[in-house]
Amino acid sequence: MSVSDVLERARAAARPLCTGTVTGAMGLTISVEGVTAAVGDVVEIGSGGVGPGHGLLRAEVVALHRDRLTCMPLGEVAGVHVGSRVRPTGAPLQVPVGDALLGRVLDGLGRPVDGGPPLAGRARWVDLATQTPHALTRTRVQHPLSFGVRALDTLVPAGRGQRLGIFAGSGVGKSTLLAQITRGTDADVRVIGLIGERGREVREFLEENLGAEGMRNTVVVVATSDEPPLVRLRAAFVATRIAEDFRDQGRDVLLLMDSITRTAMAQREVGLSAGEPPATRGYPPSVFAMMPKLLEKAGTGAVGSITGLYTVLVEGDDHNEPIADTARSILDGHVVLTRQMATAGHFPAIDVLESISRVASAVTAPHRMADAREARRLLGALRDARELIEIGAYTEGSDPLVDRARVLEPQLTGFLRQSVEDTTAPDEAWDALHRIVTGS
Ligand SMILES: Nc1ncnc2c1ncn2[C@@H]1O[C@H](COP(=O)(O)OP(=O)(O)O)[C@@H](O)[C@H]1O
Ligand SMILES: [Mg+2]
What is the per-residue pLDDT across 201-254, written as a single tens digit (0 to 9) for each? Predict the structure, then answer.
């Protein structure tokens, strides 16, 4: 018997089995009487036999009253009835962490869903909640992290510990880009959170986009759109918790979250059904409290780093959309994908002029920054002259910069376009950019 088994038995013996009962269920909440528990604790709700493993359903305590608890289900509520037995577990949600998770696909609560061996005994189990490293103990973002995507590594360079948003509408290539980055990055470990996607999209992502190569040194946490909102919400924190553990071992982790918008929507459902008032466009205040809490967990630690890449849905160019707005204010950089480029077949559909990395100068050598600035200047000149050129109103010779940009345009476009299978090492990308902008 392992030490943890002995400890578990000792704990169980010291805690008399005390059960309560379900007294009602409405919307997303379940009322329980007859037991005490702390906010955040997990209780097991079963119909008949009560005890470890007999829980039909796990639920989290979200509110306390003098004589009852309000719980929110972490699973399907069907089958729960008034009088169902409730057993407190005496602890908040426990999630697996560690190297045993590499190459695995987990559900929103950290249980394997890939048909592989169980994690019990292989992984370490920890509380979901952690203390976010204090700002002053965090090292500064100063080392580049490459994605293997030329347009990003040169014109929107990321640093280890940076948090970037990928802003895009649906169907413009977010998931494809995330998979490409997963395969191309030089991060030690990648953790992917797929939150609120449809089941079909998830299969496609895992089997076609990511493939076996993308699963190496990668952990995937999935909560599809049909999961209860609390599970979708927790999934984002579970993925982040797994990344935090790798960081605390001194690794450089890339955390990819698709999407922060759907995570916010899950928090909205949870908040509203717990009785919060809707504030900004139907989002209750807890949504705007959750977002910085989640995003601040990424970043550098005393050792290691989590570089966070969060996709943000922007529909119909609505930049006042409160979630996109809030995300932009918290993140230290953003990548914009445009539908216009996607429909023109320009992939990855990154609008580099609209994309910015706030750590670019801290992680890039000055001579390379100069090349990047020159490339932006040329692309900017092209964009500004585009309309004139299209209607034939531009006369060659009227602006030397535009003339040079037009000559270099095919090379610049060839540089920025990159097929999904292609990974370019950053040095190679910088050399190619240097050759283009200097005409050598
Ligand atoms: N790099 C790419 N090369 C070619 N086609 C792409 C690329 N990225 C996206 N696409 C096309 O766009 C579609 C939607 O991409 P996807 O990544 O699923 O978008 P999103 O996640 O933003 O909804 C894909 O099915 C594919 O046809
Ligand atoms: Mg997608």
Answer: 888 888 888 888 889 899 999 999 999 999 999 999 999 999 999 999 999 999
Residue 94: burial class (beta carbons within 10 Å; 0-12, 13-18, 19+): middle
CB 23 within 8 Å of CB 35: no
In degrees, rounded to 5, the angle at the alpha carbon of residue 125 between the alpha carbons of residues 37 and 68 is 10
- 316 has pLDDT over 80: no
Measure the CA–CA gap between 386 and 85, rounded to whole angstroms: 69
Which residue's CA is minimally distant from atom 4 of ligand 1? 347
Strand duo 68-73 + 57-64: pairing: antiparallel
Shortest-distance atom of ligand 1 to CA 418: 1
CATH number of 368-438: 1.20.1270.330
The atom of ligand 1 lying closest to the CA of 170 is 23
CA of 347 from ligand 1 middle (Å) equals: 8
Rounded to an integer, what is the distance from CA 239 to the centroid of its chain?
8
Ligand 1 center–CA 346 separation, angstroms: 11
pLDDT in tens, 327-356: 999 999 999 999 999 999 999 999 999 999
Q: Which of 174, 176, 315 to mutate to test the pocket of ligand 1 (most atoms within 8 A of CB)?
A: 176
Instruction: Say how many Å lie between the CA of residue 197 and the centre of ligand 1.
Output: 15
Whole-model pTM over 0.85: yes
Where does ligand 1 bind, in terms of residues with CB under 6 Å? 168, 170-176, 347-348, 420
Task: Let me know if domain 95-361 sits in CATH 3.40.50.2300.
Answer: no
Name the residue ranges covered by the structural domains of the chain: 3-91, 95-361, 368-438
Ligand lying closest to the C-alpha of residue 204: 1
